[in-house]
Amino acid sequence: MEKEQPRLLCSRLFLKNRLVEVALNRSVLAWKETEKSRRRRSGFSSLSDTAHSQAAQVYEIVAVHEAEDNDTKRKDKRVTGLYPHAFTVAYVKRTAQHQWRCSDVTFRCASQTLCEQWIQVINEQLSLLTNRPKSLLVYINPYGGKRRGKHIYEQKVAPLFRRACISADVIVTERANHARDHLKTEANLDKYDGVVCVGGDGMFSEVLHGLVTRTQADRGVDQSDPDAELVPCDLRIGIIPAGSTDCICFATVGTIDPVTSALHVIVGDSQPMDVCSAHHNDTFLKYSVSLLGYGFYGDVLTDSERKRWLGPARYDLSGAKIFLNHNHYEGTVSFLPAEHNIGNPRDKLLCRSGCHVCLHKHSSKEKQRGMLEEKEASDKGDSGGWSVIHGKFVAINAASMSCACPRSPQGLSPSAHLADGTTDLILVRECSRLDFFKHLLRHTNKDDQFDHPFVEVHRVTKFRFQPRHQQLVSLEDLSETQKKADFSPVCSCQTTCSSDGRAHSSWSCDGEILHHAAIQVSVQCRLIRLFARGIEEQQQQQQQQQQPSCVFEDPCAPRAPQSITHCAD
Ligand SMILES: Nc1ncnc2c1ncn2[C@@H]1O[C@H](COP(=O)(O)OP(=O)(O)OP(=O)(O)O)[C@@H](O)[C@H]1O
Prior knowledge:
This protein has 17 helices and 23 strands. It is of the alpha+beta class. It is elongated and about 85 Å long. Residues 131-282 form the DAGKc domain.
C-alpha cells in the first residue's frame, strides 16, 4: 500500500486505559499500543507489533463524533481526569462469512482542541469520498419474507443511516408494483443519490424495472425495441434483504444480512451489473439479472405459484413433482457467442470483488471492439456469428450470475460474471431421469455440473428460443402476468412432450413467470450499479482489516507524546 503517503495527524491518546499511538493518513486510521504501555501491562513484549496494531480504512469509516457520555462512563476516573475529552470513530469491522458490523473505538484526549482537530481532520477526509450517498429513496415491502421489512429497516438500518448523516425518504409499499410505478413516473429522482429496497428478489425486481424504465423514458430510448442499446441508470440500488429469497443480495455481497447491506450503502460501494432484456417480437417482457429458465425451472415456478399458501415449502414440493414429471420441450435455440471474452463458463474463475474478467470487458477498447463485432454480426443476419441448435430440452437456463444461494453454494453457473456483458446459456437436452438427477445433484456440490454428454454451456451476449409448435397465449394470461397468478397456457398445437400434455413450458424470469415461450434476450452490459462490491475473497477481507504498518512506518513521523502533525498536501 502507499507507504509514501504523508501522515495527516498523529497523537498519543488513551484507549480503554491504555496509551496508544494514533495516526491517520489519507487511506488509513491506525492505532497501536505504545511500547511503554505494553511493557507496563504485560511485563515483557512477546507479541508481534501487528498484534498490537489495529486499523480502519478511511473509506470504511462510517462516522466520527464527539464521544457521548455512555461511550466513556465506565472509564477509569484518573484517565478521564487527565484526558477529559473524547471522540468516537465508527468503522466497518468484518466478522465471519462476509458479514460486516459497525464497530466503535473511542479515543480520549487531554485537550478539547486536540479532540476537535481529530474530528475535523477525519471529517475532512470523509468529505472527499464523493461516492458516498447523502440522500436515499427507500421502499419497504411490509409483506416480503417473514413480514419483518419495516422492523428490520427501523431497528437495524435507519440508525446507521442517521449516524452516517444520510437522509432517507421512506415509502412503505401498499400494493404489488407500488415501488415500480412510483419510480417510473412520480419519483423526483434528482433529489437522490440512490434507491434502496427492503424486501426480497421480487422487490428488487420492482425497483430494477422502475429505474431502468424511467431512465430509458427520460433519455428517449424505446425499451420495446429489442435492438435498442439501453442507457445505464445513474442511481445505484441498495438491497436490504428482508424476503424469503434474497439471491441477488447473496450473490453481490456474499451474505444475507441487513446491517452488512446498510454498511455497503453507507460507504458508497458500487458494483456494476449486467441486465438481460427479454422480448417477444417487438414486445418488451421483462428484465432479468439472475436466471431465465425454461423447462424444468419454468415448470417448477409455475407449479409453485399455485401453491403459494404452502410458503417456502412450495418450492420443494413443486421441485419434486416436476422432477418426477420429467418433461422435455422441443424447439430451436440460437445464440451469439461472446467472443474475446477472457473467461469461459468452465474455467472455474469465480466472479469476486474487483473481478478481472469483468474489468477486462469494461476496458473501453474491449467494449468498442465487442460493439463493433455485434453490429457486424447483426448486419449479416442470423448466420453472422449466430449458432443454432435444434433439439428437445429438459431445461434451458440463462444464468447472468452464479445464482449461488445458501442451498446451492456454487450456483447454476459457478463461473458466471456479474458485469462482463454475457450470460451463461445452459442447455440440458433430453436425458433419463437418473441422468438429470445427477446433473441437479451437482448444483449442491463442487463437481462440474456441465460434465455430462447431455449438457452444454455457452457464454453468450444474445439468444433466442423458438418452440417447435406455435403458442397462443390468451389475453387473460397476459394480463395476469403482472399479478403472478396461475398459468394455464393455451397451445394451438398440443403434443405430448410433457407428461401433462403441454407443448410449451414457460420462462421463469428472476422468479416471475413469462407467458411467452418464444423470446429473444439481449445482455445489456453494466446497465445498473448496486451498493455492493462483489464477494470479497478471504485474503481481500484480511487486507482491508490489517494495514496499520503503512501509517506507522513513516520515518519522518513525529514521536513525541501529544505531538500533532497536520501535514499539508
Ligand atoms: N405492499 C405490498 N403488498 C403486496 N405485495 C407487495 C407489496 N409490496 C411489494 N409487493 C410484492 O411482493 C412480492 C414479493 O416481495 P419480496 O420479493 O419482497 O418478498 P419475498 O418473500 O422474497 O417474495 P416471494 O414470496 O416471491 O419469495 C414482490 O413481487 C412485490 O412486487
